[in-house]
């Protein structure tokens, strides 16, 4: 008999029939009786003081039911973070601007009307008098004393320092002094956008009884509940957030967004439900995006490649607001610690406020930028020392059982196995340095967290997931999980975990998810946490349920519960699967004997050794229950006449601990590769003087099917001791090695190193010209 | 000024009042309650609004409803027959070609138009055939697999 019946299988998603038939109803597919349509008036200026707003004409337009401005909302800014001891500047945004607008797109007023056209017409009738202020668009200029101040009261210091992280450990002076080679270089990466195909969407219904119900396209319903309650000044318990199926998030829908409280306020004022759907332009410009970075990096190594010291400085453009910027600037630093040993390290990260659209968290948060820099440096160092890029990575690689100098606890590690499997798949031995001019191979490694351990919006919990299970009389189980499937397939993963633990088929599991009114608290979908956190909570709840089932069956079978096993819908004495009682009959027996519902609860908090270690001054932080590893190799063909880079293949090995559903893990790897190919080649959110040049999907170019090279997903299973059945993350880390692997392959192909993203043909040609001129 | 138009969608006749400027996408979603076609860019760049008109894949956000009269319109809701999924739908399910699902209706209909015209396409022809339909989740790999698997079955 196989070890597992349900997990480890390539099962289709539970929601797939609904999605191929058009049955699935997303937020914009739903209507409520009497529903109004909301639209938001946005600032045409990068930086201006609001002198006066006159909404009288808009209010008089037939069909308009409510108009609101900044004066209608509370004085509590709705920013994101509520970490214990965090300074107040982490919350720096009002749902609608009160005194100043800080970027082109900032919310100034909002309208609800009986249809969208009237709402749009009403926006044109709102008269706003602005006093235009000097603005700043460059993060380095913004940090200089005397630069126009984006925030009068929130910036940390003179200039526009939004937030900074500065820490060091070990002795970097000694580390560099003892190095045989010290290499310094400079890297830059661009703004890119999440671009889920479903724009941010909300329907809000503020009833006369004071209860507010919101249907949101979100990754974090329990965070939205808190934010909406605070912004509307109603008790949290009166706000119910329901997450319908969500059409992609990628981190953008983990943010706090103005349109949610705006819809709720319009509903309150009009007495009707209000729907707001972002236009694509709003989606691209008026939500957060990945931080662009400017990096100076210095690494010291011994002759044999051993890393002795690293000094790294990041300056990022945070745009007008904080969003997740506090976490971003921190993660850029700490995600450089792996997958390599690092004993001496200094990091200085500075996030600037500017009058650009704002930056936040995007898939691979912090790791994308850290890996591009570190993995490029590893190859540059290997070349200088005449070392094999595989060997330098293996030699410095972390191992299972290690607690790093900054307190990362490595409970599982598939670093070397990933390198071996990926390089074998691409044919590294026969290709590296051996392909004809113009062709080359490159490698880069992954290192990412399986969920952040810190809380940032409910003070008294660490990052937390809860699950309730109730047994039904037909032998099925309803799993109530607070977790948010936004397309990645976590509901199916959790159903597989529940079914395996309970000893039933997946057809016996029904998921009810992400409704703050009926499901237990779950912190949401971010930092690649759902399999680890909600998966463990599901497993724990199922273990509790199973115990009740076994105890009930034990009486019926006149056996000890400890001698029983549940598998494939039956409970029997271990070793005698022919005799026994079905799970369905066991549930019925429970109802008959106990005369009460059969329910169980389980939850998951990260191990206590984790959340207790957070030192912002030293970088000591055990931020996650488990780290993912991985290695990608790629083969490229560079046309030296045109500068066009063609990717021939990507061999993507990812250590996900254990694949609960291998088909879903492959899907995550392939999706991550595609998103990173976009950042590598075509995606570039361009802002000129604060004005977006890329505000449609014609200008902001996502990869298409025709752009996709063959991707071979390779699943490495290192069986983590903390993960459910050994599983770790697979949804964010796999974004991180793509870009540096390509940059390293281009170097192997044509001998030029690309240190800034995106890789355009012009950039490749310029680099070739420069090399030729030397 | 609204006028009464007649649309034939998935074999059924619908009579509805629309302003002449309304797109087929607006009328399908707003008037007929057929929400399988999605709006994601509203300028013909993403393919989520794809429907079939007389068997050809068409962007319903760029097509006027009044111009769609007298034609056979197929939306994703009309693809499964008598409770049985179309082979493309079944292969999307079995091959894991779906994640968030927002692109799925348009993607399947573009693939259907391709296979109806060219039942044995090469992989490159499939990639080009669905290149007007953006997917942000899957990286297309499993979508291409699902379409190629269908070519072997029909």
Structure notes:
- The complex is a heterodimer of chains A (774) and B (154).
- Chain A has 774 residues and is α+β, with helices and mostly antiparallel strands.
- Chain A has three domains: 16-23 and 464-604, Aldehyde Oxidoreductase, domain 4, CATH 3.30.365.10; 31-133 and 195-285, Alpha-Beta Complex (Aldehyde Oxidoreductase, domain 3), CATH 3.90.1170; 376-453 and 624-773, Aldehyde Oxidoreductase, domain 4 (2-Layer Sandwich), CATH 3.30.365.
- Helix content of chain A is 28%, strand content 23%.
- Chain A is built from 20 helices and 28 strands.
- A seven-stranded mixed β-sheet of chain A has the order 3-5-1-12-9-10-11, sandwiched between helices. A five-stranded mixed β-sheet of chain A has the order 7-15-14-13-8. A four-stranded mixed β-sheet of chain A has the order 16-24-25-28, sandwiched between helices.
- The longest helix of chain A is centred in the last third of the chain and has 28 residues, at 530-557.
- The model of chain A has no long low-confidence stretch (mean pLDDT 95).
- Chain B has 154 residues and is α+β, with helices and mostly antiparallel strands.
- Chain B has two domains: 3-78, Beta-grasp domain (Ubiquitin-like (UB roll)); 87-153, DNA polymerase, domain 1, CATH 1.10.150.120.
- Helix content of chain B is 32%, strand content 16%.
- Chain B has a five-stranded mixed β-sheet with strand order 2-1-5-3-4, with helices on both faces.
- In chain B, strand 1 (3-9) and strand 2 (12-18) form a beta hairpin.
- In chain B, helix 2 (87-94) packs across helix 5.
């Amino acid at each position: 008999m196989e070890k597992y019946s349900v997990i480890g299988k390539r099962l289709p998603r539970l929601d797939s029939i609904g999605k191929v038939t058009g049955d699935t109803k997303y937020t914009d597919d739903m209507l409520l009786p009497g529903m109004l349509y909301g639209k938001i008036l946005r600032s045409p200026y990068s930086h201006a003081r609001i002198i006066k707003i006159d909404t009288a004409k808009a209010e008089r337009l037939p069909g308009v039911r409510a108009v609101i401005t900044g004066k209608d909302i509370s004085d509590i800014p709705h920013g994101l973070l509520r970490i214990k001891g965090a300074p107040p500047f982490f919350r720096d945004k009002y749902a609608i601007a009160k005194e100043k607008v800080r970027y082109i797109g900032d919310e100034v007023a909002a309208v609800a009307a009986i249809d969208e056209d009237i709402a749009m017409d009403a926006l044109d009738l709102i008269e706003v008098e602005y006093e235009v202020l000097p603005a700043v668009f460059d993060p380095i200029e913004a940090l200089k004393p005397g630069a126009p101040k984006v925030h009068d009261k929130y910036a940390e210091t003179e200039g526009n320092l939004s937030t900074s992280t500065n820490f060091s450990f070990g002795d970097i002076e000694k580390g560099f002094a003892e190095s045989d080679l010290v290499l310094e270089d400079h890297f830059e990466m661009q703004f890119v956008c999440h671009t889920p195909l479903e724009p941010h969407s909300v329907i809000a219904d503020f009833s006369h009884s004071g209860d507010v119900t919101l249907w949101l396209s979100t990754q974090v319903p329990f965070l939205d509940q808190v934010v909406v309650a605070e912004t509307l000044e109603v008790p949290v318990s009166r706000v119910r957030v329901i997450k319908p199926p969500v059409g992609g998030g990628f981190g953008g829908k983990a943010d706090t967004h103005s349109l949610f409280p705006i819809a709720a306020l319009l509903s309150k004022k009009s007495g009707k439900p209000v729907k707001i759907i972002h236009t694509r332009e709003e989606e691209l410009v008026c939500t957060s995006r990945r931080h662009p970075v400017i990096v100076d990096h210095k690494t010291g190594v011994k002759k044999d490649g051993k890393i002795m010291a690293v000094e790294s400085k990041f300056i990022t453009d945070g745009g007008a607001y904080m969003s997740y910027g506090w976490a971003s600037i921190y993660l850029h630093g700490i995600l450089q610690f792996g997958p390599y040993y690092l004993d001496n390290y200094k990091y200085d990260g500075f996030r600037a406020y500017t009058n650009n659209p704002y930056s936040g968290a995007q898939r691979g948060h912090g790791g994308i930028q850290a890996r591009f820099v570190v993995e490029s440096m590893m190859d540059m160092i290997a070349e200088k020392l005449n070392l094999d890029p595989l060997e330098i990575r293996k030699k410095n690689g972390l191992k299972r059982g290690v607690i790093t100098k900054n307190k990362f606890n490595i409970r599982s590690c598939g670093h070397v196995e990933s390198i071996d499997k990926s390089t074998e798949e691409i044919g590294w031995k026969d290709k590296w340095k051996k392909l004809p001019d113009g062709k080359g191979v490159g490698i880069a490694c992954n290192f990412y967290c399986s969920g952040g351990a810190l809380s940032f919006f409910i003070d008294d919990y660490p990052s937390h997931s809860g699950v309730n299970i109730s047994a039904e009389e037909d032998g099925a189980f309803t799993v109530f999980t607070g977790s948010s499937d936004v397309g990645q397939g976590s509901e199916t993963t959790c159903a597989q975990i529940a079914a395996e633990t309970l000893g039933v088929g997946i057809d016996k599991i029904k998921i009810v998810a992400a409704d703050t009114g009926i499901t237990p608290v779950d912190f949401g979908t971010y930092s690649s946490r759902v399999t680890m956190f909600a998966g463990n909570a599901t497993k724990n709840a199922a273990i509790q349920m199973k115990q009740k089932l076994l105890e009930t069956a034990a009486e019926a079978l006149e056996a000890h519960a400890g001698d029983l096993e549940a598998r494939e819908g039956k409970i029997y004495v271990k070793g005698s699967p022919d005799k026994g009682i079905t799970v369905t009959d066991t549930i019925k027996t429970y109802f008959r004997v106990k005369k009460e519902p059969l329910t169980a609860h389980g939850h998951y908090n990260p191990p206590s050794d984790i959340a207790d270690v957070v030192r912002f001054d030293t970088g000591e932080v055990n931020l996650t229950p488990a780290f993912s590893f991985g290695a990608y190799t790629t083969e490229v063909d560079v046309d030296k006449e045109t500068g066009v880079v063609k990717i021939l293949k990507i061999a993507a090995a990812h250590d996900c601990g254990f694949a609960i559903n291998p088909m879903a893990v492959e899907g995550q790897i392939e999706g991550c590769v595609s998103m990173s190919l976009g950042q590598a080649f075509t995606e570039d959110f361009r802002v000129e003087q604060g004005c977006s040049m890329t505000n449609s999907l014609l200008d902001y170019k996502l990869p298409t099917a025709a752009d996709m090279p063959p991707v071979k997903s390779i699943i490495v299973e290192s069986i983590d001791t903390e993960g459910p059945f050994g599983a770790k993350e697979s949804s964010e880390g796999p974004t991180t090695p793509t870009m540096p692997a390509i940059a390293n392959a281009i170097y192997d192909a044509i001998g030029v190193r690309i240190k800034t993203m995106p890789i355009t043909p012009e950039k490749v040609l310029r680099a070739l010209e420069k090399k030729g001129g030397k | 000024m609204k006028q009464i138009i007649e649309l034939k969608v998935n074999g059924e006749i619908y009579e509805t009042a629309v302003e002449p400027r309304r797109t087929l996408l607006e009328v399908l979603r707003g008037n007929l309650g057929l929400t399988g076609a999605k709006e994601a860019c509203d300028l013909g760049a993403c393919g989520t609004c794809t429907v079939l008109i007389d068997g050809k894949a068409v962007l319903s956000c760029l097509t006027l409803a009044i111009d769609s009269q007298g034609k056979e319109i197929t939306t994703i809701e009309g693809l499964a027959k008598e409770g049985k999924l179309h082979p493309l739908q079944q292969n999307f399910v079995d091959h894991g070609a779906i994640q968030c699902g927002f692109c799925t209706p348009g993607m399947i209909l573009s693939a259907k138009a391709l296979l109806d015209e060219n039942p044995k396409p090469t992989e490159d022809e499939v990639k080009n055939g669905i290149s007007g339909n953006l997917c942000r989740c899957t990286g297309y790999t499993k979508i291409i697999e699902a379409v190629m698997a269908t070519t072997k079955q029909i």
